[in-house]
Recover the amino acids of this structure.
């Protein structure tokens, strides 16, 4: 990968629109050229510092144009997973566990620097592999580097999680230390293939554990490039291992093999809750599952509707609605519902759809055929049981004919307890319901198995206080034009879900994150 350290301002999800400067576009265009020249190669697994060639492979294609093969990856087997576990165990016991924490921090800071250096190439790749527009892609890359830096800061701030304790006699020296568990598996989803591979793996490594990363089969190339950043930072062999293949075989082996000490999974509730139930067998083991969301925005009669519609639009359709924090439900006070819907529909019609590598396009394709088919199914249900206010059609003609492009869609007129108010969908579809009061909106907003994010638009302090006190979600925003329910940033908005959205009650990018990968040991030494 080429060095692209540059003089650009930092892109975050909340400053996306400000980020696309001419310099940014030039650097991104050059990176896209470079990345394209490299497409179509076959990639190995990385186990114990060695490249392990694939016996069987699967193609990684672009959702913008399925004729484009980005790379071929190992359709790994259970044996590959076992080899990765053995390599991670060896590296844990022989070097990483006993390395002074300051050295671990030094390595992870180097990984963050490598990611920053390659950020344009990585961003262009993300656009091609998962359909992120250029700024969303840069956000994912920058977030990864910032997560790593923030976690390093946290470890330093806590002195490596070693705390002197009180004593009961002069001869006693007491310390409380957080120690690693051993081998951690990181299973990541397709939608933030950098941040949700790099953030968790760096957290586990900083805690003194060794890691096996299994990326989503829709985004293995980004995972591989991240592994290269780890390699560039010079991590000892076997400390970070990379293995691709189906969740149903490779993933299943990683989850059920007794040699694994901890798992951090990010993905759907269906898969994650299954792993949570299966993982611990002989004794409890840490299993952190970050799962889906059915995130509501609430709009009261006092809201600024221009701000509210901007915020809802960005969160409903950013990354084609495929964020765990996507806004898929909107509860609007009936007094302003007509005006709100009108404005939202108008703004939605102006969204520019197309190849996300091109700077003019904001909405890219959905990830794969299954998502494309789900879109047809959900819009048909919406049309039957409610009303499509805007959108509702897949895009089949040129230039969309080889990708999974669909129209952003707003649905109204559904019954309050309709299936579309419960299913995550994970598509550029949002549904709007009219409500009589904030009280009703809150009751409906909380009527879900999920509890990830939520947003309120109101200019009334009493309403704002009521929302903060009653909403059941881990990440909540009020009056956020940059995103009603999306766009958390490390060290700024810690990100983690309640209820069916997350198992640990602790958030990524937050002050308690790294400690989750460690266990407490109370050490008493009697002298003389
Ligand atoms: P997914 O289908 O659940 O897959 C997630 C990961 O799990 C992939 O790497 C997948 O591998 C693997 N997997 C599948 N079955 C497995 C099994 N039996 N054992 C072990 N691993 C298995 O999710 P996705 O479609 O990639 O991502 C979208 C979901 O992630 C949404 O529900 C979204 O809300 C959630 N998400 C949550 C957060 C959060 O922070 N809470 C953030 C982002 C996304 P394969 O790809 O090979 O099947």
């Amino acid at each position: 990968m080429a060095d692209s350290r540059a003089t650009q301002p930092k892109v975050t999800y909340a400053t996306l629109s400000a980020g696309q400067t001419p310099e940014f576009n030039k650097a991104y265009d050059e990176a896209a050229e470079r990345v394209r020249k490299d497409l179509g190669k076959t990639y190995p697994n990385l186990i114990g510092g060695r490249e392990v060639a694939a016996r069987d492979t699967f193609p990684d294609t672009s959702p913008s144009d399925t004729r484009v093969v980005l790379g071929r990856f190992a359709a790994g087997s259970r044996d590959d997973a076992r080899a990765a576990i053995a390599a991670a165990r060896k590296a844990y016991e022989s070097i990483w566990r006993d390395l002074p924490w300051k050295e671990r921090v030094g390595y992870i800071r180097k990984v963050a620097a490598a990611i920053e250096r390659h950020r344009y190439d990585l961003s262009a790749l993300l656009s091609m592999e998962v359909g992120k527009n250029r700024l969303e892609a840069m956000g994912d890359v920058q977030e990864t580097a910032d997560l790593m830096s923030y976690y390093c800061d946290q470890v330093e701030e806590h002195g490596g999680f070693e705390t002197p304790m009180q004593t009961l006699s002069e001869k006693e020296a007491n310390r409380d230390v957080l120690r690693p568990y051993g081998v951690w598996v990181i299973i990541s989803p397709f939608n933030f293939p950098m941040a949700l591979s790099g953030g968790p793996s760096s957290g586990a490594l900083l805690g003194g554990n060794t890691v096996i990363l299994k990326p989503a089969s829709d985004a293995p190339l980004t995972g591989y490039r991240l592994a290269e950043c780890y390699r560039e930072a010079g991590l000892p062999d076997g400390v970070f291992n990379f293995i691709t293949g189906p969740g149903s075989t490779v993933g299943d082996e990683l989850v059920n093999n007794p040699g694994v000490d901890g798992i951090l999974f990010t993905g759907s509730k269906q898969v994650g809750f299954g792993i949570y139930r299966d993982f611990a067998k002989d004794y409890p083991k840490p299993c952190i599952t970050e799962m889906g969301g059915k995130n509501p925005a609430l709009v009261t009669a006092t809201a600024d509707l221009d701000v509210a519609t901007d915020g809802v639009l960005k969160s409903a359709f950013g990354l084609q609605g495929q964020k765990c924090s996507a806004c898929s439900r909107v509860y609007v006070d009936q007094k302003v519902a007509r005006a709100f819907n009108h404005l939202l529909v108008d703004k939605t019609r102006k969204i520019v759809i197309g190849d996300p590598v091109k700077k003019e396009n904001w909405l890219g394709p959905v990830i794969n055929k299954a998502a494309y088919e789900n879109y047809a199914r959900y819009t048909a249900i919406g049309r039957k049981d409610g009303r499509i206010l805007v959108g509702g059609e897949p895009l089949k003609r040129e230039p969309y004919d080889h990708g999974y492009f669909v129209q952003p869609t707003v649905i109204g007129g559904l019954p309050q307890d309709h299936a579309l108010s419960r299913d995550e969908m994970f598509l550029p579809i949002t549904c709007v319901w009219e409500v009589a009061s904030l009280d009703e909106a809150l009751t409906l907003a909380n009527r879900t198995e999920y509890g990830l994010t939520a947003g309120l638009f109101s200019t009334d302090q009493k309403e704002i206080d009521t929302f903060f006190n009653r909403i059941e979600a881990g990440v909540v925003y009020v009056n956020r034009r940059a995103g009603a329910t999306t766009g958390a940033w490390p060290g700024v908005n810690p990100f983690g879900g309640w209820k069916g959205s997350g198992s640990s009650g602790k958030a990524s990018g937050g002050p308690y994150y790294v400690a989750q990968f460690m266990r407490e040991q109370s050490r008493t030494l009697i002298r003389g």
In short: Confidence is low (pLDDT under 50) at residues 1-6. The first strand starts at residue 41 and ends at 43.
